[in-house]
Specification:
CATH architecture: 3-Layer(aba) Sandwich
CATH class: Alpha Beta
Strand order of the largest sheet: 2-1-5-4-3-6-7
Shape: globular
CATH superfamily: Glutaredoxin
Strand content: 15-25%
Order of helices and strands: HEEEHEHEHEEH
Number of helices: 5
CATH topology: Glutaredoxin
Largest sheet: 7 strands, mixed
Number of strands: 7
Helix content: 25-40%
């Protein structure tokens, strides 16, 4: 029962954060560089750090190239039980928005063995969202990741509007409603 209450509170905070930040402009906290010291948590409202990572086909993806889109950024690993638990709900969310050119879902793998373990895993479970490889944990350092999974929702201007630590059911109606609000906003 307690875990359901905590999960409910988490959903409310995510929805409120997404809607509030998605509908208004926030000024960045701190220096605004988008970078975070290792171990320092990235707060909602911060400019998300740019990155340059390869997808499973070897193509480079940068956050900067996605400016103007709403980005769902999930940091995970194949060996992570909570990551494996939440990924089917990510696929459900992805399928809802896959035809939107202004929404991108990125699953950034922290597996040190890279493509050799990640590609078979993604194929086995039939995930269709974009998977990026980060065996050197550059995202973990830049975003102050303390464990996996961690998820960041980034608005059109590159600002983090929500940050969730731990496994979550991303297929919930409240999440879709909040993402819909961000997608309606053409400014941020």
């Amino acid at each position: 029962m307690r875990s359901k209450v905590v999960a409910g509170i988490g959903v409310v905070l995510i929805v409120v954060g997404l809607v509030a930040v998605g509908l208004q402009r926030l000024k960045p906290h701190g220096a605004g560089s988008g970078a975070t010291a290792p171990g320092e948590e990235v707060a909602a409202g911060e400019l998300a750090a740019n990155f340059n990572l390869q997808d499973l086909d070897g193509h480079h993806v940068t956050l900067e190239s996605l400016r103007g889109k709403v980005v769902f950024l999930n940091v995970w690993a194949t060996w992570c039980g909570p990551c494996r638990e939440e990924m089917p709900s990510m696929e459900t969310l992805f399928n809802k928005y896959k035809n939107r050119k202004d929404f991108v879902m990125l699953a950034i793998s922290q597996d040190q063995m890279g493509r050799d373990v990640v590609a078979p895993y993604v194929q086995k479970y039939g995930y269709h969202f974009e998977v990026l490889l980060d065996p050197d944990n550059r995202i973990g350092d830049a975003y102050g990741i303390t464990g996996v999974p961690e998820t960041f929702i980034i608005d059109r201007k590159g600002r983090i509007v929500a940050h969730h630590m731990g496994s979550f059911d991303w297929s919930r109606d409240e999440v879709s409603a909040a993402i819909d609000e961000l997608l309606k906003s053409k400014q941020g």
